[in-house]
Amino acid sequence: MGFEMQIVSNTPLIGEEDPNLVAKKFFEQIGYISKGTDPDIPFKIFNDFFLKHPNKAWYVDEISVKLKTSRPTVYRHLNKLKGFDILEEVQIFDEDTKQNKKAYRLRYGNIQKVEHLQTLIDKERKENK
Question: Domain 19-127 carries which CATH code?
Fold first, then answer.
């Protein structure tokens, strides 16, 4: 599945020292976080789960419980990340239920390996110089 994105207009991110604020603004610019909505849940899903634990596959229930939010909310944000080709869906054998369960992880195990995202970030840096 291919992925292409065009940023039509954006505010330069020059001068901001807080990487979390830069990331939230970048996520708005690419459409992962909707403008005018609370960015905490989608930001935490991506940052706290997938960036901080790039080799772990996460169950929706784990994310939902830790963030104290609904499963549909988690699925909505996971599907956006899947649409950006950043996450992949995997089947993990659950020892408790003795069944395979759907889980999500970074597609390439390392965000730096996501070439199209790196290209987008590089383009953003050049435009903001």
Answer: 1.10.10.10
Beta bridge partners of 100: 93
Q: Model pTM greater than 0.85? A: no
> What's the distance, CA 8 to chain centroid?
21
Domain ranges of the chain: 19-127
Q: In 10 A of CB 92, how many CB atoms?
A: 15
- For 56, list phi and psi in degrees, rounded to 5: -95, 140
CB 76 within 8 A of CB 69: no
CB within 8 A of 47, min separation 6: which ones? Answer: 20, 23
First to last CA, the chain: 32
Q: Hunting for tokens 């990487």 — which residue is that?
A: 19
Place of tokens 């950043």: 86
Residues 36-56: tens digit of each pLDDT: 777 899 999 988 998 888 889
